[in-house]
TrEMBL record:
Segments passing through the bilayer: none
Organism field: Nitrospira tepida
Protein name: Lytic murein transglycosylase
Stored Pfam families: SLT
Similarity-based family: Belongs to the transglycosylase Slt family.
Domain of life: Bacteria
GO biological process: peptidoglycan metabolic process
InterPro entries found in the cross-reference section: Lysozyme-like_dom_sf, Transglyc_AS, Transglycosylase_SLT_dom_1
Cellular compartments per GO CC: membrane
Transglycosylase SLT domain location: 82-175
Length: 206
């Protein structure tokens, strides 16, 4: 986990990731490099200044997968879900849809970690290290509770806002007519139902 005083550095650099990725129509044409210092501070750039920066393969939509012990992940989900009055199955459904349980996932838009937090969302909810599973889940569940309260408990609208942004949902006052967002809402609800019935907390029934 990054030090508290490194947060502005970390997210200023991570914000740059989404900025310089967006102009490229073909993600293969953009190159992103990462350097993690001895304090765990993550620096991202498209212009590496020295040999410590290592290239990230964004065509796979993730950094190297680092498996999480199932018990540890289940504990983090259950604790954050209880704190923010959410069903753990819903949190798992979002993680499944967003990152497929890859804590190092990075989207082409710059969303990070298990619950794919955009840097500005992570800062809003005081997430210090978006690649830390517990920190990421804490921020993601807090954001989901905020969206559910904002949209008066309407889960499809909250999920649409999680995917497309709350102002997009405000603009339409309903599910936005965006295919990707509608597919996302359906996917999360499908996973939610499956996780509710799952014999294992992290593995839904087929």
């Amino acid at each position: 986990m990054a030090r508290p005083d490194s947060q502005p550095i970390l997210f200023a650099l991570v914000c740059a990731l989404g900025t310089f990725l967006s102009p490229f129509a073909n993600p293969v044409s953009s190159e992103v490099y990462q350097y993690i210092d001895r304090h765990g501070v993550i620096s991202l750039t498209n212009v590496p200044t020295d040999a410590r920066y290592k290239r990230i393969d964004l065509t796979a939509s993730s950094v190297a997968h680092a498996p999480i012990p199932e018990k540890k992940l289940d504990h983090a989900i259950t604790r954050s879900a209880r704190l923010h009055r959410l069903h753990p199955a819903l949190v798992r459904a979002i993680i499944k849809a967003e990152s497929d349980f890859d804590p190092r996932a990075v989207s082409q838009a710059g969303a990070l970690g298990l619950m794919q937090l955009m840097p500005e969302t992570a800062i809003q909810h005081h997430v210090r290290d978006a690649f830390d599973p517990e920190d990421n889940i804490a921020g993601g569940t807090k954001h989901l509770r905020y969206l559910l309260d904002r949209f008066h408990g309407n889960l499809p609208l909250a999920l649409a806002a999680y995917n497309a942004g709350e102002h997009t949902v405000d603009r339409y006052q309903s599910l936005p007519p965006i295919d990707e967002t509608r597919r996302y809402v359906q996917k999360v609800l499908r996973y939610y139902r499956r996780f509710l019935l799952a014999p294992s907390p992290l593995h839904p029934t087929p």
